[in-house]
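Lay summary. Proteins are chains of building blocks that fold into shapes, and those shapes determine what they do. In this project we predict the shape from the chain. Here is one chain we studied, written as its sequence of building blocks.
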Amino acid sequence: MLNDSFSHIHWLAVLAGAAAYWILGAIWYSPVLFSKSWVKMVNLKMDDPDAKKGMPLMFAGSFVLMFVASTGIGILSNILYIADIMHAVKLGLLVSICFSLTSTSIAYLYTRKPLGLFAIDCGYHIVGTTLACVVIKLLS
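And here is the predicted shape, written in a compact code that computers can read:
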């Protein structure tokens, strides 16, 4: 069943879903939305030259990881026969709450990071995963 799911993946839709998730991150963590609060809560000094080292690699790495997540969404969409946008939204919420939110929550329990940071980061993944599901459905 899983091998069959790989052969039916619409790779352009998966790529677009990953791109939508990544672009959302650029907006989510920008001054338009949450950058000021996020930067403060992670103690990032934006004027420190070391803070910007490795940024291109981080951006590329995050895109690759979002592509992996979108590939999983594409597989689940095929297995579950996601028929319309509402079902795509439900799949996005299911996947993000059951996997992204829980794994992030476990990490936050042990690192004792601020609740506001948790809300920003989890909110991003819930919206991003759901957006990726919708984009993948629209293009498949």
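What the prediction tells us: The mean pLDDT is 92.
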